[in-house]
Structure formats: structure tokens, C-alpha cells
């Protein structure tokens, strides 16, 4: 795994987190080499250097080192950079500024401006999106995946005590846990997530049988792609597919 | 009030609504003529034609008729159109697609993609934003005005029963109320909004004395503009100022 095109990448992740998996799918599809730093989910000392407390974080070095936060910003920024190499990554990232806003419940949330939008000029746009509508469609489905699809994962993965335990067995095996930590995480984590999932189900207005929501979401996606193309992006996957 | 540059505009509004006022400030500053349709806030029959149930709505006719929703989308789309007349307004609007998302509380909300971003090519960008940082700054402060500044208005305007009554006296005078409707709206509305304001105060985590939040917001703005420029936009107001 060596740098390519001057782009040196390090991904801070939990292997089993959906947002991290999305970033890996994107990087792998584009054949970009990157180093992985698996973060310990309890102590998180690997990301202590960062004021941003979540994963994924991508450290990108394209001349000067740069920290990218938020899975969709990472993907939009790197994709823009790959299309238009004469813009600096630093400049590109500045078009996705963090913007605080206060939610309905008075909670502060951080959002990134334009995060599903590639920062292309007209020539690049015509090359990447010969059919204009696809660009807007891609944006909508990327948002759908971040805002809706992911919310179906936890309730489905911790649906029953047995499934919760199986999931945590996998998470502990794949994740970076200490020995004792792993033992506790498996049983306490499975129990906690089984309970929390019920609350998530309610918060996101899911059906009693959460499998149903998942089936419906998948059907919605398949229907949106339609019969006449292989991927949302046509014959090749676009960012909504990845 | 006659069409100009082929752009025929009709604004559906409540005169006293902050988002409508923002759109008027924008249109007036740019010297764009527009017709106003004052909407009756009880029956709202003037906007029955629209599936979008809120104001402001701008009907724009630049060749073909087009309905623009959301005050910030209206401003971004028309501004982009003024800068780049060779793009059709229809095409520009397609870059601000409505996107459903489900809030923390399971409530469906409608957001518009890229809504604080002008859809400019590189040449236009250089002309409008000779200093790059100003573009991102403008975006942030536009969002701040929509998400934070407006939330300070109601609690401040209905802070005490006397102020609530004075506000509704003004609203009823300027708005499009029936005679009987107006009478009831004034007293019932003032009472209701006095009570609702307390809830809003709590929801948005405001200080007990909401005047204080307003002063702080204004100070924050003044400080961000700084001593060396007249407006956020420099010597001329930009969209954050308007």
C-alpha cells in the first residue's frame, strides 16, 4: 500500500461502522491505497489528536497534510480531487465548511455545507454527468443512505437477544478491543444495544418488525435504479451506489 | 411594477414573516420588480394551488413559469440567474432539489440541497468572490440567520403580554385578515404566541432573558464583520447581509 498520484491516505475507523465501510468502498473502488488505523472504541486514544471526536477521519497528504471529517465530505472531497487535480485538496475541502446548527430539541449539531455535491466546473460536470438529472439523483440517494438507510441497521442487527449477541461477537472479533474489554463489550454491549435499539426504533418511527422497513428500503432502491441500468450511475456505479 | 430582463415575479407572503422580509430585502436591493400576493394566514386560499404549504413562494416566469419554494433557495436561485443569464432558471432550480429527511424525533422534514450556494462557474466565481473565503463565510452566516437568528425573534417579540399584544396589533394591521378574524387573531393570537414563546425558548435553549440572546447574536455579527469593512460582503452587502 503505497501513495499514488501524490495522495497519501490514512483512515481512522471502526471496521464495523457503516460510515467507515462506505468510505472504504469508495477508496477501494477507485483503487486508492490507504493505511488503516483501527480505533479502540472505548478509549479512542488513536484519535485523541483530533478535536473531531467521531470516525471516520481521513488524513490526506497531497503536498500538505489535511484532516477530513465526515464520511460524505471525505468522499465528495476526494472524488472532486480525482476529477480535477489542478484544484488543491485544501481548496476543495474549504467548500465543505462545518456549520453548527441547533436542532429542534436545542441540541447543537454539526453539518457540512454542500456535502453531497462535487465541486466541479462546467467541463468536468459534462464529463462526469452527461445526463444532468443523474447528478441531482445521486445527491438525493446519498443523503437517503446517510439519513434513512443507516438508521435501519442497528435495529435490524440487534433485533433479538440472539442476533445482538451474534453481532457483538463479530464486532469484538473484528474491532480493536483489549482482552478483558472485549469480553465485557460482547455481553454488556449486546445487552445495551438490544435495549437502545428499541428506543431507536421508536425515534425513527420504524415498524414493529424492523425487517420490513429494511426490505422496503431495499425495494425502494431497486425500483429507483429501474430495469434499464445496472447501477444508479448507469453501467458504472456512482457515489450513490458506493 | 413591470417585468425586467424577462423575469416576471410574484411573491406570496405574509408581510410580517421574517423569511418573507428577507426575500423582499433581496429583491428590493437588486431592483427587481415583483408583485405581492398577501396570503390570508387563516384560510391560506391564495396558495391552495401549491403542494408546498408555506410562505414565501415565488412564482418566476423567465420564459416558462416556475415555482420556487424556501426563502434561501429563492435567493440563491435568482442570484445565480442574475449573475449567469445564459443558464435557464429551470436548470438552476434543479440544483436545489428538495430532500426529505427524518429528524431525531422521527418527524419528516424537507431540506433543499446546496441552498446557500450559488451555482457559478469558475469565471463567475472569480468575479463575484474575488476573495475566496468570503464565499464560505457568506454561506455560514446565511445559515446562521435561518437557523439561529430567526429563532430569537418570536420569543423576543412576544416576551411579555404587553409586547405580545403590541406585536399582534401590528401583524393584524399589516396582514390580510378578515374583520372578525382580525379581532380574534389579535387577542387569541397574542395569548397563544405568548405561551408558545415560552416553549420555543426552552426548545432552543434560550436564556431566561431572551433580550440577552438577541444582543449577543447582534454583537457576534458585528464582531464577525469587523472594523475594516462596511458589510459582510465588503463595501457592498452580500447575501449574508441581506
From TrEMBL, chains A, B:
Functional pathway: Lipid metabolism; prostaglandin biosynthesis
SUPFAM superfamilies in the cross-refs: GST C-terminal domain-like, Thioredoxin-like
Pfam family, one: GST_N_3
Matching CDD domains: GST_C_mPGES2, GST_N_mPGES2
Ranges where the GST N-terminal domain occurs: 11-76
Catalytic activity: prostaglandin H2 = prostaglandin E2; prostaglandin H2 = (12S)-hydroxy-(5Z,8E,10E)-heptadecatrienoate + malonaldehyde
Family, per entry: Belongs to the GST superfamily.
Name of the protein in question: Prostaglandin E synthase 2
Enzyme nomenclature, EC number: 5.3.99.3
GO terms, molecular function: prostaglandin-E synthase activity
Chief location category: membrane
Keyword annotations of the record: Fatty acid biosynthesis, Fatty acid metabolism, Isomerase, Lipid biosynthesis, Lipid metabolism, Membrane, Prostaglandin biosynthesis, Prostaglandin metabolism, Transmembrane, Transmembrane helix
GO cellular component: endomembrane system; mitochondrion
Protein species of origin: Nothoprocta ornata
